[in-house]
From TrEMBL:
SUPFAM superfamilies: Heme oxygenase-like (SSF48613). Gene3D superfamilies: Heme oxygenase-like. Signal peptide: none annotated. GO terms for molecular function: hydrolase activity. Pfam families: Metal_hydrol. This is Metal-dependent hydrolase. Keywords: Hydrolase.
């Protein structure tokens, strides 16, 4: 039996962020490195999340009824995420950033993946969805990651994080269904190799993308590297803090819902506003 909670509700929230507001160039607390890495991440989402939808939908036919409903909710959430990050990216461009090099890199990675069999694309989606889920967990668990950020931008990232946690098991459950006739050893070998490949590309591309955006702000060389690596790995250290959760992907019996972290969603009320105050750990469904 799959460990996705039976009472899980995946709720698409059709929200729009910052349409009538001008995005300050260094919107993340005036910090060039913080602004750069979040802008670099956002650049991946319009095309990347469309790719996730395409990869999962390819295996929707004949899935169990519950999984079929979850795939539908997942694709709706991801489509809205793509739309909102496209709008956010346009605001970043209006603030003066040239995102073209980063967008070309995303397209290159996706075009390479599309040459592989559909099950490989699904495996890549499963691995990347684990990345987004553990990043989302850390972002909601530690308010310091968005401390000082533009209010509308911060709300966008928290909203996205909430929905990433909600649907974190969909791509994995679809993978389990699609490979249900595979020997366990083959399934583990493929998913492990894909995760290692995805991890390398994720770290290299997001780092080089952030450095390119920092260059556009006049910060280059050793200073740029020092600022970015300190921010990502030391303080607040998002990448360091997700390392343990990343490693669990390779353990026997792994499933994204082995950790039920829906307590982090408790601050997100029905109006779509997020209360970043400390949250009591509960096990209630959202």
């Amino acid at each position: 039996m799959l460990p996705t909670p039976a009472d899980l509700t995946i709720t698409p929230r059709d929200r729009r962020f910052g349409r009538d507001a001008t995005l300050t160039r260094l919107w993340h607390g005036g910090r060039v490195e913080a602004t750069a890495i979040y802008n670099a991440l956002s650049t991946t989402f319009p095309k990347g999340e469309a790719y996730f939808v395409e990869s999962v939908r390819a295996f929707r036919e004949n899935t169990p009824e519950k999984l079929g409903r979850e795939i539908k909710a997942f694709t709706t959430q991801e489509a809205i995420h793509s739309r909102e990050h496209d709008a956010f990216n346009k605001r970043a461009e209006n603030a003066g950033y040239d995102l073209s090099k980063l967008e070309e890199r995303v397209e290159y990675r996706l075009s390479f993946s599309r040459k592989r069999p559909p099950v490989v694309a699904l495996a890549a989606t499963m691995a990347l969805e684990h990345f987004t889920a553990i990043l989302a967990h850390q972002l909601l668990a530690n308010p310091r990651h968005l401390e000082g950020a533009d209010k509308e931008a911060a709300e966008l990232w928290r909203w996205h994080a909430v929905e990433e946690i909600e649907h974190k098991g969909v791509a994995y459950d679809t993978w389990l269904f699609a490979t249900r006739d595979w020997p366990r050893s083959k399934r583990w070998k493929v998913k492990a190799k894909v995760m290692m490949f995805v991890t390398r590309n994720f770290l290299v591309d997001r780092t080089t993308g952030a450095l390119e955006l920092m260059r556009q702000d006049g910060v280059t060389g050793a200073r740029a590297w020092a600022l970015l690596l300190w921010y990502l790995w030391i303080n607040p250290g998002m990448f360091r803090k997700i390392a343990g959760a990343w490693g669990k992907f390779f353990l026997p019996g792994f499933h994204p819902w082995n950790e039920d972290d829906r307590h982090l969603l408790a601050g997100y009320d029905t109006s779509g506003e997020f209360d970043a105050a400390p949250r009591r750990k509960v096990r209630a469904a959202v």
